[in-house]
Amino acid sequence: MQGHIDKIYVMGGPNMSYTSSLGMEAFVDYPIRPLTGRTWGQKPKMSWPHKSCYYFPKAFPVYRLHKIVSVLLAVLGMSLISIVAFVLAQATAGPSFEMVNVNNDYDKTISKDVGYGALGNTRKLEDHAEYKRSGENDYEDEDGSEADDDDDDDMVIFEEKSENNNYANDEDDEDEDNENEEFDMNYFDNSLLDDPKQSKENVNSDNLDVTESVPFNTPNIRKEWKELPKINFIDSKGRHILEDGVVFTVEVEKLLRDPGMNDSAVGRIQGHLRARDISKIEEPSWDRCGRPKNQWVELLGGQAACARYRYPDDNLLLGEVLSFYLGRLLGIHHVPPVVLSLPADQAWIPVADKVLQAGWEYTSPVVLTPWLKGLKRDRMPSALLEAVMGNKTLGPDGAGKSLPLTLLDEDDLSRLLQWSDLLVFDYITGNYDRVASMQDAAESEQKLDIMNNTIHNLVRSEETGALWLIDNESGLIDAYNLLYGGLDDIQAERFLQFHSRMLQSICVFRRSTMEAIEGLANHPHPEKLLIKFVYDHEPLYTLLPDPLKSDLFVKYFSQRIKETYEWMNKCVKKVAK
């Protein structure tokens, strides 16, 4: 049928309806097809596609589209079902070994953007996850009514004493030792410390393989202090406590039964962590490796470690790595060794399915820290706490507002020796997740007795009395971003004062630490020295953001070293007067 029409009749059930369609030349019927359209005075012609070709009239009834709509809905539904099924399949089954079996030539097999974006994100202190975790309401009076901390480190976790194995302490527990929960660790057998006095039964031949050891050499940056006052301090018991005014004597140094890991021990541990395959991986818990996405891992041979995963906050991994190497430069040998590991490496193949279930990116590095044993939480020495609470300085008697050392027993002297290192270390790194977080809680809650509780991320060996500075990821990078980033000047100033107050609470130091500070303070670029030290010993270091691109790190790392040096020099001059 052809000719001019003004109406198109459409059969729609028992009743007939119509709609107007001007300028159309043909009926529309099923199946829908391109219509012949023309303008007046021209011959009809087929157009496909063309602006004058209409697939259906402008007023075409909607019910005539039901077949098209049905097909589209069916396709959409099948697509959604396929996507859901694929996601579920990936979550329940790991990839084949061929997918992750890459060799050790990371530059050729792994491509990853290691830009500096992670270091540029400045956050407010109260909004930061690590700060929130440290400042939660876990400070209570020492009556056992509440745990001191539910999860303040990733490398070592506490063994719960209560019968129901939950996160709360047993309120009926009257034993003070139960307030300092014991660490249940099984890595650092005594052979790692090269102790010739250890008994043979403590050595497990499977623990370490000499051939796995890697070179580790700490650069010697120490410089001797000149013009120290020739003043010695001997207490009423005849103990020679201080020499050169502010320096702990060799006699006090010998009170520390465990001097820490030498370079050889560090090389053996790092080589072991890098060489062994991962034979087992388990989800973290309150008593093992801490917060979600961390994993407890077991190496071939039975040794254990915690794997820290922080992507996309790799600046936290960077803080952990840099803090360890800074500790080595300062001669502080009780900061646990760290190594970077890549889940895409062949060492992780036996647990590839667990890696996927953990939600890790295969190309995002993790930090492995060895698992320690026989440790428990420790408090601040009473003499130092008295100095902090009284806004005084612990040092030689008679030197201004200072407190004497002559009344301390050997155990307190040994702990104070190590705390002097801790305060120097935390001041330089700006670590807000140890003493500073407790100062913040004590001030915010107006409960000064919080400072008498066990200290965050500080544990003590029950056997040797050595203090281990653990969980240092908030130091240097993240701490500087938070303290100097400028988003919350009030909070930043508070934490700056916390660090200054702790550093200025003590005026006695180890000679090795003073000489290391002297060397770093007089080095033209201490930040480059630290980064080169890391680069020379960590093969995967380039997978992390480059801290030398951070103006905050470059500026304030050297500045805080100089401020530490100035405080030490002030202590020396004060005694000399």
Automatic annotation (TrEMBL):
The keyword Acetylation does not apply. The keyword Amino-acid biosynthesis does not apply. GO terms for biological process: cell-cell signaling. GO terms for cellular component: extracellular space. Keywords: Membrane, Transmembrane, Transmembrane helix. Residues 127-136 have a biased composition (Basic and acidic residues). Residues 137-157, 169-179 have a biased composition (Acidic residues). The chain crosses the membrane at residues 68-89. InterPro entries: FJX1/FJ. Residues 127-179 are annotated as: Disordered. This is Four-jointed box protein 1. It comes from Meganyctiphanes norvegica (Northern krill).
